[in-house]
Design brief:
- It is a single chain.
- By secondary structure, the protein is an all-alpha fold.
- It is built from 3 helices and no strands.
- Helix content is 81%, strand content 0%.
- The chain is elongated.
- The N and C termini lie far apart (102 Å).
């Protein structure tokens, strides 16, 4: 049974290597591979940027708390335009 599993896994490995080789020889494969690499680079950049958002959110929450504790300015009476006419 173990011999059969090894044989099956070996055949699968050989088939996958052949498939990868065929894909790399296909027309336009270099463009696809470069696009995938670029995608990985962009995902890394997005992850780096989103880590900074957590700090900004903490700072924003602290500022919102400070603003909510500030005293409200007294309401000024409104002057209407109809009185001036």
């Amino acid at each position: 049974m173990a011999e059969r599993n090894k044989d099956l896994l070996g055949r699968l490995a050989d088939l996958s290597e052949e498939a990868i080789q065929r894909l790399s020889e296909a027309p336009g494969a270099d463009r696809v591979l470069s696009a995938l690499k670029g995608l990985g680079d962009r995902v890394d950049e997005l992850q780096r940027r989103t880590r900074g958002f957590e700090e900004l959110e903490r700072r924003l929450s602290a500022l919102e708390k400070k603003v909510s504790t500030l005293p409200k300015p007294p309401a000024r009476p409104r002057s209407s335009a109809s009185k001036k006419s």
